[in-house]
Sequence to fold (250 residues):
Amino acid sequence: MPRSLFSLSNVVLGLLCVSIFVILLNFRYESKGMSAPVSIASYIVNFSYNDIYMFIMNHFSYYDYWYGKVFLDFKYRFTGGIQGFGPPPIDEGVYIYNLFLGRPVEPPIPTDMMAANSWPPRTFGNGYMNFGFPGVIAFSFIQGWLTGLAYRWMVKTGRHPIFLFVYLLMVFSFQVSNLKIAELGTVIVGLTLVFGPLYLIERRSLRVAAGLGASRGWPRGAGPLSGRSSLQVGHSSQPASPALEKDDSN
Fold:
């Protein structure tokens, strides 16, 4: 029998999630010396990025799109800065927050010249502020394609924990934005540095075991790393034929 959407367990889980969100939101406001939201509407707004999306759509309805200039910030991060100043922010949400403050900012601008806060645009906002609605469609397609690619890798590897982790990261965290691209790249590099050598050691061990088996004349696939089946070569688990059993009746 299918479980009801509004079953007691679902309602309790939903209330628990809302309670955790409210506690964390209040803690974040208090840690920054700000007053916590006092109305239900304020909490609802903070549940999503819709207020940021609406600001971006309104602002870029009157000003030119950025046409991908924000992605050039990666270049200045690696070249050391902009004309003797510091590098631009890796989080393009810093630009959006400064636009909200009324400052005429446009990439690339050094981080030190802007207010240190962020309104992350995520895939929707990033697509719109760069190319309008076609950008939203294109960026959403890219995000979906990359997430599907991670899913196919996960299935192909038999749901290996590392690929499962990457897939979940794509589903719950990845966005087509500088910040999330840098975050994903950092995770992949870290996983490669940690697990890459272990993978190479495992492959070398398998090759050594295969060579040892070939030198000793073991059947292909048999050997010390091939499991229990390698220990049962030449031993039949079937009972002996009655015609071959010794007759003890005489």
In short: The chain has nine helices and no strands.
